[in-house]
Amino acid sequence: MKLKKAKQNSLRFVGQMILANIVTALCKSLKTIKVNDETIKKLDDENKNYVLAFWHGTMLLPWYLHGNPNFAALISKSKDGDLLAKILKHWNYNVVRGSSSTGGEIALAIMIDFAKNDYSITITPDGPRGPAHKFKAGAVITAKKSEVPLILAGVGYQKKKVLSNWDKFEVPYFFSKAKIVYSEPIFIEANLSYEETSDIISNCENKLNQLQREAQDFQ
Predict the structure, then answer these.
(1) pLDDT digit string, tens, across residues 28-47
(2) d(C-alpha 36, C-alpha 67), whole Å
């Protein structure tokens, strides 16, 4: 029984590594247009970290573009999260496992600690189970408590396959045009009230949806 389980784990590991290489090759093949990326470059040039948020269904490209050891990513403890964690480690991320439903408070505290120690953070604010395009508090709270700016990113692919799962996950075709549109930095004061913080979360949801529409326009 133990041998069978060990074999299954080995096959799963090999399969995940193969898929990670395929996903990397796919992202490398994309013809990516970056809009307002001067915002990101300025922060990087000044050695300032930030929280980067994008919708769960569009996460492939932004995670690929920002893969480096200076970033930490919050990934759910689900089986899908296991595969994603493998890919992000392949892209040199520091991976934190947890979500709004499982290990969330601990994971959020770890992400805030990473941000306070000069790591940038990537978060999908509607993950891991939705509702799709509903901006949960994690990204704003992380930026607020760590006193770093929040950047939103809309992502679009000209040619893609849209899956039928909850987030309508978008898989771009090889060599497709892609676009990522960044917001200006959003600075969130640490002493804001609950109501004021809730207003910012709502505004971020509206802004990210606007950026998403811009990113999907290839005319």
Answers:
(1) 999 999 999 999 999 999 99
(2) 19
